[in-house]
TrEMBL record:
<dbReference type="InterPro" id="IPR050085">
    <property type="entry name" value="AGPR"/>
</dbReference>
<dbReference type="InterPro" id="IPR036291">
    <property type="entry name" value="NAD(P)-bd_dom_sf"/>
</dbReference>
<keyword id="KW-0028">Amino-acid biosynthesis</keyword>
<dbReference type="GO" id="GO:0003942">
    <property type="term" value="F:N-acetyl-gamma-glutamyl-phosphate reductase activity"/>
</dbReference>
<dbReference type="Pfam" id="PF01118">
    <property type="entry name" value="Semialdhyde_dh"/>
</dbReference>
<keyword id="KW-0560">Oxidoreductase</keyword>
<dbReference type="InterPro" id="IPR000534">
    <property type="entry name" value="Semialdehyde_DH_NAD-bd"/>
</dbReference>
<protein>
    <submittedName>
        <fullName>N-acetyl-gamma-glutamyl-phosphate reductase</fullName>
        <ecNumber>1.2.1.38</ecNumber>
    </submittedName>
</protein>
<keyword id="KW-0055">Arginine biosynthesis</keyword>
<feature type="domain" description="Semialdehyde dehydrogenase NAD-binding">
    <location>
        <begin position="6"/>
        <end position="47"/>
    </location>
</feature>
<dbReference type="GO" id="GO:0006526">
    <property type="term" value="P:L-arginine biosynthetic process"/>
</dbReference>
<dbReference type="GO" id="GO:0051287">
    <property type="term" value="F:NAD binding"/>
</dbReference>
Length: 48
């Protein structure tokens, strides 16, 4: 099965959200489709 699951992460700029992003970027069957964060709205994730 090679289909990736598309997911969204709420609170991606916080410590837990950022760690989740870091881990899931390496997961072979997950595609991060949406990241949200109130405090960092409009910024690129790499800048956070």
């Amino acid at each position: 099965m090679s289909t990736k699951k598309k997911i969204g992460i709420l609170g991606a700029s916080g410590y837990t959200g950022a760690e989740l992003v870091r881990l899931l970027l390496r997961h072979p069957r997950v595609e991060i489709a949406v990241l949200t964060a109130d405090r960092r709205a409009g910024q690129m994730m790499g800048d956070v």
